[in-house]
Each structure stands twice: as structure tokens, then as C-alpha cells.
Design goal:
207 residues, Glutaredoxin, 2 domains, 4-stranded mixed sheet, 5 helices, 14% strand
């Protein structure tokens, strides 16, 4: 009789252990999820309000938070593939390549708002930028820039500078703190002495 009871208990042990392991696994997953949430909250708390926006990435539509560029000098440009200023892609990539290691990031926002000069799909735009100009700086998906559908990020840039884009390849330069913004018209080339001087001044500031 005792042997039968002992045998029954022994057969139950694997099920007992399996249940405990499932509970432990769920507990570990819950703890990891909590840590991830706390980390995300901490990052968001330190993110300048101006950068607290998310856009789909041009190449694959994955959400990209601008908070990831906190502490960098950011050159924001609304772009188009069939514009008289499209050749500025080359200069933008050159500036990005030269100053990236010092903390500059260039971010392109394709838009079809000015002269219908960006009619293609996100994939077509991405292929054009890569194959024609070898663009490596971050590019977001097509974005509404002009009123009345101006995206919230651009509304803030306009409010801070008092200047709204009038055409493709308008530029906004944001300092490392995400608090100061300067505006440059489409006529300002990426290698303009005035723009480069301001980039270097803000790069020289500590994050």
C-alpha cells in the first residue's frame, strides 16, 4: 500500500515541477516587461518636448521616436525627388558624413505638399535616395508639411521660428537641448557658410 502511494507521489512530482516552472517563467516575463516600461518612461521623461514625436521610417514603416536623437544637433529637411533643389541631397549627405561623429544627425521628411514633386510611394522614394544620391541619413515616411494638415512636429518648429516652409528643402536646425531652433530657406545650400557655422557652434556645446 505504502509503495503504491509513494509511486503515485513520484508520478505527480514532474507535473508539480512543471507548474512551478511555468509560474516562474511568467514571473520573469512580468519583471522584464516592468523594467522595459520603466526604461521607456525614463527615456521619455528626459526627452525634450520638441522631440517627443514618432514617425514611420521611410524604408520599412517601423516607428521611429525622435527622442532617440536627444543630445544631438538635428538638421530637419522636407525633401522631394523631382524638385529643382533635389540635388541638395548630395550636400546633405556630405554634411551628415562629415559631422555625424561629432553629434549631428540629418533627418529627411519627404513631402508631396509643394508642387506635387514627391508623388511616389515610400519604397520608390527610398530607392531613389539610395540609388541616386547614396543617402544614409535617417529618412521618415511621407509627411504632411503644409497647412492645413501640418504634422504636430512641424507645427512646433514653425511656432519656435516664426517661419514655415514655403517650398521643398526648407531646413530647421535644432540644438542639442532641443530648445533652440533656427530656420533656413530652400535657397540655403547644405554647405552654406552660415549654416555650417551654426552647426559647428552648437556641436561645440556639451550635450
Amino acid at each position: 500500500m505504502t509503495g503504491k502511494i509513494s509511486g503515485g507521489i513520484l508520478r505527480l512530482i514532474p507535473y508539480f515541477v512543471q507548474d512551478k516552472m511555468k509560474l516562474l517563467s511568467r514571473f520573469v516575463q512580468a519583471v522584464l516587461a516592468l523594467f522595459a516600461l520603466l526604461a521607456a518612461s525614463s527615456a521619455a521623461a528626459g526627452c525634450p518636448p520638441l522631440l517627443d514625436h514618432t514617425f514611420p521610417k521611410l524604408q520599412d514603416s517601423k516607428p521611429q521616436s525622435l527622442c532617440q536623437y536627444e543630445g544631438k544637433v538635428i538638421l530637419v529637411v522636407n525633401t522631394a525627388s523631382f524638385c529643382g533643389f533635389t540635388g541638395q541631397y548630395e550636400g546633405l549627405e556630405s554634411v551628415y558624413d562629415k559631422y555625424q561623429s561629432r553629434g549631428l544627425v540629418v533627418i529627411g521628411f519627404p513631402s508631396n505638399d509643394f508642387g506635387d514633386q514627391e508623388p511616389g510611394s515610400n519604397k520608390e522614394i527610398a530607392d531613389f535616395c539610395r540609388l541616386t544620391y547614396g543617402v544614409k541619413f535617417p529618412m521618415m515616411a511621407k509627411t504632411d508639411i503644409a497647412a492645413p494638415k501640418t504634422t504636430a512636429f512641424y507645427k512646433e518648429l514653425i511656432a519656435k521660428t516664426g517661419t514655415r516652409p514655403k517650398w521643398n528643402f526648407h531646413k530647421y536646425l535644432i540644438d542639442r537641448s532641443g530648445s533652440r531652433v533656427e530656420s533656413y530657406s530652400s535657397l540655403t545650400a547644405p554647405d552654406s557658410g552660415r549654416l555650417i557655422a551654426q552647426i559647428e557652434r552648437w556641436l561645440a556645446e556639451k550635450p
